[in-house]
């Protein structure tokens, strides 16, 4: 067996984690590629990187039919790479761009039936998460507990840390609005992805989902949480690209249709969906603030991202109305 050298997974450096690739050549077998993930050096988007917890989450979800990379191995010994790391098989396929999937690239140019399969297989994944037994995943509980009150507390603590306590007035107002309008938790919570975006999934040529990635923010929340994150980040993408069509791609459902389908698939009406969408944009805004803080801390105050809006106009209007 021949193991190749580690190489960067891509040219883009991120603060969420560092990904490396290596190949394994076996006698008489095709080479297989693996991904190594290590915590970012010099500070990251999150205060802690629980790779052991991520490994456990991905293994657990894979046994319940979620397309997480498997098998996956966690190595706590820092002797090898000067940091703990995890190893998992590389999944080859298409990953839609966060900012441009609806205006250019593979998904934009794909046949309508492929777009439809991308949409539906992603939706099916969100529904499948509702069937995962939450009582078997106690490590996904926040220190503050579970549900909306706990999530609000966790994210309020997060933005204090992320900005070195320099929280902008807009975010302070946003959390006040969220607390005033906080809905009751539904009777049953679910395992939530925490970052349910098309850019965190890998699809094969037919549009079927073959990889569900990036489980750093997995938690126990209402089903509305992931679904609203998907809707809100899609709306954010359309706003950035000046797209007003609903849906943004001909193979996707309209907003009204996908909401109705999701409700039918999980067996109950969604509650206070608008609140969860605002909360999604507040959480995204907290992460944007952290990235901006990191850029300034390394002398990149002129970087374009430091001028990016913390929240989209429609979310700002909602909390200040």
From TrEMBL:
This is Aminoglycoside phosphotransferase domain-containing protein. InterPro entries: ACAD10_11_N, AGP_Transferase, Aminoglycoside_PTrfase, Kinase-like_dom_sf. SUPFAM superfamilies: Protein kinase-like (PK-like). Residues 29-237 form the Aminoglycoside phosphotransferase domain. CDD domains: ACAD10_11_N-like. It comes from the Bacteria. Pfam families: APH.
């Amino acid at each position: 067996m021949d193991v190749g050298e580690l190489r960067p997974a891509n040219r883009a450096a991120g603060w969420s984690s560092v990904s490396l690739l290596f190949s394994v050549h076996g006698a008489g077998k095709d080479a297989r590629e693996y991904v190594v993930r290590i915590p970012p050096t010099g500070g990251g988007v999150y205060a802690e990187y629980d790779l052991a917890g991520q490994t456990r989450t991905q293994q657990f979800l894979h046994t319940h039919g979620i397309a997480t990379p498997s098998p996956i191995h966690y190595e706590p010994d820092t002797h090898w790479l000067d940091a703990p790391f995890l190893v998992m098989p590389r999944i080859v396929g298409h990953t839609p761009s966060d900012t441009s999937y609806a205006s250019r690239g593979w998904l934009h140019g794909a046949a309508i039936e492929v777009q439809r399969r991308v949409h539906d297989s992603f939706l099916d994944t969100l529904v499948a998460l509702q069937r995962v037994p939450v009582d078997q995943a106690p490590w996904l509980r926040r220190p503050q507990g579970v549900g909306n009150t706990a999530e609000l507390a966790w994210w309020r603590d997060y933005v204090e840390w992320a900005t070195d306590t320099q929280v902008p007035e807009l975010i302070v107002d946003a959390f006040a609005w969220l607390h005033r309008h906080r809905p009751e938790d539904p009777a049953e919570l679910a395992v939530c992805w925490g970052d349910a975006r098309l850019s965190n999934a890998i699809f094969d040529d037919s549009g079927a989902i073959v990889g569900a990635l990036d489980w750093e923010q997995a938690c126990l929340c209402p089903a509305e949480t992931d679904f609203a994150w998907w809707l809100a980040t899609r709306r954010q993408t359309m706003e950035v690209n000046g797209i007003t069509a609903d849906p943004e791609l001909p193979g996707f459902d309209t907003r009204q249709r996908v909401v109705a389908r999701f409700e039918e698939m999980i067996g109950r009406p969604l509650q206070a969906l608008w609140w969860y969408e605002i909360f999604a944009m507040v959480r995204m805004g907290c992460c944007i603030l952290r990235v901006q803080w990191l850029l300034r801390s390394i002398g990149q105050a002129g970087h374009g991202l430091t001028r990016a809006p913390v929240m989209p106009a429609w979310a700002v209007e909602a909390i200040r109305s």
